[in-house]
Amino acid sequence: MFDVAVIDDPAAAEASLDPMRSRLLAELAEPGSATMLAVKVGLPRQKVNYHLKALERHGLVELVEERRKGNVTERVMRATAASYVISPAALSAVQPDPSRSPDRLSARWLLAVASRLVRDVGDLLAGAAKARMRVATFALDGEVRFASASDRAAFAEELATAVTALVSKYHDETAEGGREHRLIVAVHPSVKAETKEP
Q1: How far apart are CA 1 and CA 52, in angstroms?
Q2: At what angle do helices 45-57 and 10-17 cross, to 10 degrees?
Q3: Domains in the chain, CATH or no CATH each
Q4: Residue range 106-133, pLDDT digits in tens
Q5: Confidence at residue 197, expressed as pLDDT on a 0 to 100 scale
Q6: 136-152 in b/e burial notation, b at 16+ Cβ within 10 A?
Q7: How many Cα atoms occupy the beta-carbon half-sphere of 87 within 13 Å?
Q8: Smallest Cα–Cα separation from 48: which of 23, 30, 82?
Q9: Distance (Å, rounded) from C-alpha 137 to C-alpha 115?
Q10: pTM for the model
């Protein structure tokens, strides 16, 4: 089971967004049968089987084992990933395109860039899985608290200068056999998780 999988097929995205199927995917972080799941989600076993077959058809769940119980063969399934991200490629006709209006200060442009990141990394993961290889990536995630808007602007300017210097130092247009990598650096306000009242 993968930690995260990217869904780029529109039909698979639709299947995963169904509330009951989404719940079954969550339950199948641990292997289970239709009979076991029926008790947990409060549906008849046949209805659970119907949903499981749809999820299996789209590669969102997989068979772990088959158990013989009398005249019945019980299929034990598990989700193919602990969590899923839907790629903008699933909405190909309306997926965001960062080249339409590049503006490094626009939150909407940042969203388009992030969408492209999900799509591209999803494609890389799919290709790497077929080739039985890993994808060479690197990411940073952290928080910084600015005292003022002017400090935030100064930070952004220094960050842009530092990144530009690093790119100039390591970018080699003439490197034979070299491979281009996309670099994305983003700064946005932190979103605090909502605390649910008991």
Answers
A1: 17
A2: 150
A3: 2-84 (1.10.10.10), 87-170 (no CATH)
A4: 888 898 999 999 999 989 988 888 899 9
A5: 52
A6: eeeeeeeeeeeeeeeee
A7: 23
A8: 23
A9: 17
A10: 0.77
